[in-house]
Design a protein that fits this description.
This protein is an alpha/beta fold. It has helices at 3-16, 108-118, 213-220, 236-244, 249-256, 303-312, 316-326, 382-387, 406-422, 505-513, 516-531, 536-549, 551-561, 606-618, 686-697, 709-715, 730-741; strands spanning 131-140, 158-167, 182-190, 193-200, 270-271, 276-279, 285-294, 332-341, 347-348, 351-352, 368-377, 400-401, 595-599, 622-627, 641-642, 653-656, 702-705, 724-727. Strands 1, 2, 3, 4, 5, 6, 7, 8, 11 and 12 form a 10-stranded antiparallel sheet that branches. Helix 5 packs parallel to helix 10 (505-513), helix 14 packs parallel to helix 17 (730-741) and helix 15 packs across helix 16. The longest helix has 17 residues, at 406-422. The chain binds CIS-heme D hydroxychlorin gamma-spirolactone 17R, 18S (HDE).
Length: 755
């Protein structure tokens, strides 16, 4: 054999010769090896996550199926290589003429590494840039088969889904808990192709026609001169626009309500917003509005919590979703539809179904459940999946069609367009997360980032050279056939229907549907936002809008701003019946998946802490242990939050398992001023006192074993107040919290004067 053959043999040996024990595992495979501190000298699996990256301990041993196509996991092989697969001996030093340089231009590895890094960022979404996503499954109930022939809605059919939640205004790195609308976009990988339901957590929109979208977004985004404020509506341009453009009043009111600051993505409703058209197997059509109903209930933060979290954990919603899934507490939503006859008027109970600023109260058209969504796996790679997923309201399957809503019509154009800029060309449907699970056989060819190696010579129809392939599907072969809606002869106009001029009846309906405490929050939100507006004329104009919604709302906000309350023109306020379904207060929900802080001290009985944690887990809660330092309380009792890192806003309820005394526990609490909260109990750790005080003020359930009394006194917690349990029985303490969490908060503890 010649020298060339020897070299080839050596390369092959090297590639195959890695003993199997040393072969690296695929990313994500469970590691049985102990964590390594030093840099490994041989190829090995990635380190397990560090303890502070760990989610709360699993509730169940639920299996993990990422749902991602198998080829989504690329990167493997034992050695570091270039992008061309050439193994590298070093990646820490540029190629130089001698150790002191200069660096040589011929260093391809340096050039390739820096080039790729320079191009790592892609343009963020122009709206909805900040998001988090998860994989899951949708199971049809079969209840929709009378109105839609969509195969995935049939009974028991399971469809993989990918859901992305988002805020609208902020940049990719902005905080999660800002006051904003949330996106709720679902990609169904159905057997008949991809269906996207690209909705929001608020059922109405700021505008009735897509042509206004750049206006509302420009007004809401940061000011173009200083690019502030980030991810906020509390600024002049937003309020300038929405007060001049009063069709935005309804959506704005929802934003100022508790819906604008959800407790969790897991606890939000979702809405398709527009009216859609379903078509059944007989070709009959029905108009519908889509609703996602969270099984955990619809819950919100209070504004102070939202503000604190934006600083202490800007990733709060992202973390919450990932942690819950990791812990096996899979979030679930039922998909439901309100159905309306598809009449030429396209109205229901006098409400124009083509007007996306209007809802149809559930009391008039009940939401009928048609399937259930379970999110059961976190993405493997944020960029590949969450960032590159591309939704489109025009991704429809047979049995689901659009209406003439002018807002929806504009969206059908916009989303394709934006992906070309964002994902760098027209082939984004080939990115793994966007690939349909149904077979694709299009005649789209070439373009940037073409992944497919198409065979054949005739990407056109009709052809004879490729045997006439591919063929058209007939009606019985799952073809998507647009519903033949008659279009009435009409003149070309730039106009809206007359009913679209009603901008105030539904904001009033929403306001009247809220409970007193929710109205109080709306008043506080308007007062906060308008306090941040500089132009007096804009504040006054907003008050004239509010006067048309409700006198109390207008008067209270005016009072907070120190401005006179304007009177609404006579007869401006329409008589409307409230819709109790719109209130978030007054119902009971399962406590499953809620986060419980267990506050321990060095004096806590470890056996009791263990018992509390187990009782909490058995009740479906996600307990986190808070202790003075990170030292484990016992081998099986790791600490998730030190006093230095714990803040009440992370927890839905607080359980005190020991009085944290100063000296023993007050490591590093130097802020003498925060002791003021304690009301003169210097014996207690000020951070623990603040924890209890905040949880109490935010109307969260509290429970404490007997020695919590000192903490209650120091934190201003009234032991007689509703939702405060003090006792010696650990099991009862946990069940008291679970019971109280059913209403989310102890609403009686909030003052409410706005009746
Ligand atoms: Fe969007 N919207 N939108 N939107 N939208 C986008 O598409 C647009 C509207 C919604 O997690 C963009 O891929 C126009 C209503 C969600 O990836 C863009 C109009 C509703 C998401 C776009 C609207 C939504 C988007 C930005 C007015 C609720 C995030 C990046 C006609 C029903 C999806 C992208 C995700 C994203 C345009 C109005 C929901 C620019 C022109 C109404 C949840 O194409």
């Amino acid at each position: 054999p010649g020298p060339m053959k020897k070299i080839v043999d050596r390369v092959v040996e090297a590639a195959e010769g890695i003993p199997s024990g040393q072969r690296p595992r695929m990313p994500g495979a469970p590691s049985t090896e102990p964590p390594q501190v030093a840099e490994p000298t041989e190829p090995r699996a990635p380190l397990p996550p560090k303890p502070d990256q760990l989610a709360p301990a699993p509730l169940s041993a639920a299996g993990r199926d990422t749902g991602a196509p198998a080829d989504a996991a690329s990167q493997n092989g034992g050695y570091l290589t270039t992008a061309q697969g050439v193994r590298l001996p070093d990646s820490d030093h540029s190629l130089k003429a001698g150790p002191r340089g200069p660096v040589l231009l011929q260093d391809h590895h340096l050039r390739e590494k820096i080039m790729h890094f320079d191009h790592e960022r892609i343009p963020e979404r122009v709206v909805h840039a900040r998001g988090a996503a998860a994989h899951g499954v949708f199971r049809g109930y079969g209840t929709a088969t009378g109105v839609s022939k969509a195969a995935f809605l049939q009974e028991g059919v399971e469809t993989p889904v990918f859901v992305r939640f988002s805020t609208v205004l902020g940049s990719r790195g902005s905080a999660d808990t800002v006051r904003d609308t949330r996106g709720f976009a679902t990609k169904f990988y159905t057997g008949e192709g991809v269906f996207d339901l690209v909705g929001n957590n608020i059922p109405v929109f700021f505008i009735q026609d897509a042509i206004k979208f750049p206006d509302v977004v420009h007004a809401a985004k940061p000011h173009p001169d200083r690019e502030i404020p980030q991810a906020q509506s509390a600024h002049d341009t937003f309020w300038d626009f929405v007060s001049l453009h009063t069709e935005a009043t309804h959506h704005t009111l929802w934003n100022m309500s508790d819906r604008g600051i959800p407790r969790s993505y897991r606890m939000m409703e979702g809405f398709g917003v527009h009216t859609f058209r379903l078509v059944n197997a007989e070709g009959a059509s029905t108009l519908v509005k889509f609703h996602w109903k969270p099984k955990a209930g619809v819950h919100s933060l209070v504004w102070e919590e939202a503000q604190l979290i934006a600083g202490m954990d800007p990733d709060f919603h992202r973390r919450d979703l990932a942690d819950a899934i990791e812990a096996g507490s899979f979030p679930e939503w039922e998909l439901g539809i309100q159905t309306f006859p598809d009449t030429p008027e396209q109205t229901f109970a006098g409400i124009d179904l083509l007007d996306p600023t209007k809802i149809v109260p559930e009391e008039l058209a009940p939401v009928q459940p048609i399937g259930v969504l379970t999110l059961n796996a976190n993405p493997t790679n944020f960029f590949a999946e969450t960032e590159q997923v591309a939704f489109h309201p025009g991704h429809l399957v047979p049995g689901i069609d659009v209406t003439d809503d002018a807002l929806l019509a504009g969206r059908l154009f916009s989303y394709l367009d934006t992906q070309i800029t964002r994902l760098g060309g027209p082939n984004f449907a080939q990115i793994p997360i966007n690939r349909p699970h149904a077979p694709v056989n299009d005649m789209l060819r070439d373009g940037f980032h073409q992944d497919a190696v198409h065979s054949g010579v005739a990407p056109y129809k009709p052809n004879s050279l490729d045997g006439g392939c591919p063929f058209f599907a007939g009606p019985g072969e799952h073809a998507f056939i647009e519903h033949p809606v008659p279009i009435a002869a009409a003149a070309k106009v730039r106009e809206a229907p007359a009913t679209f001029a009603d901008h105030f009846s539904q904001p009033r309906l929403f306001w009247l549907s809220l409970s007193p405490v929710e109205r109080e929050h709306v008043i506080a939100a308007y007062t906060f936002e308008l306090s941040k507006v500089y132009e007096q004329a804009i504040k006054e104009r907003v008050l004239t809008v509010l006067a048309r919604v409700d006198e109390v709302l207008c008067r209270e906000v005016a009072q907070g701003l120190g401005l006179p309350a304007p009177q609404a023109p006579a007869g401006a306020q329409v008589e409307v019946a409230p819709s109790p379904a719109l209130s978030q207060v007054g119902q009971r929900w399962p406590a499953t998946g809620r986060v419980l802080g267990i506050l321990t001290a060095t004096t806590s009985d470890v056996g009791v802490v263990r018992q509390l944690r187990e009782a909490a887990r058995d009740a479906g809660l996600m307990p986190l242990i808070i202790a003075p330092t990170g030292a484990p309380l016992a081998d099986d009792l790791a600490v998730q939050r030190t006093y230095a890192a714990a803040r009440s806003v992370e927890f839905d309820a607080l359980l005190v398992a020991g009085a944290p005394t100063r000296g023993a526990d007050d490591h590093g609490a130097r802020d003498a001023k925060s002791g003021a909260v304690a009301g003169g109990q210097p014996a207690l750790d000020s951070r623990a006192v603040l924890l209890a005080n905040e949880a109490y003020r935010h109307a969260k359930p509290l429970a404490g074993l007997a020695d919590a009394r000192a903490l209650w006194a120091a934190a201003g917690v009234d032991p007689q107040a509703p939702g405060v349990f003090t006792g010696t029985d650990a099991a009862r303490a946990v069940s008291a919290l679970v019971e109280q969490l059913g209403t989310h908060r102890v609403w009686e503890r909030f003052p409410a004067t706005a009746h």
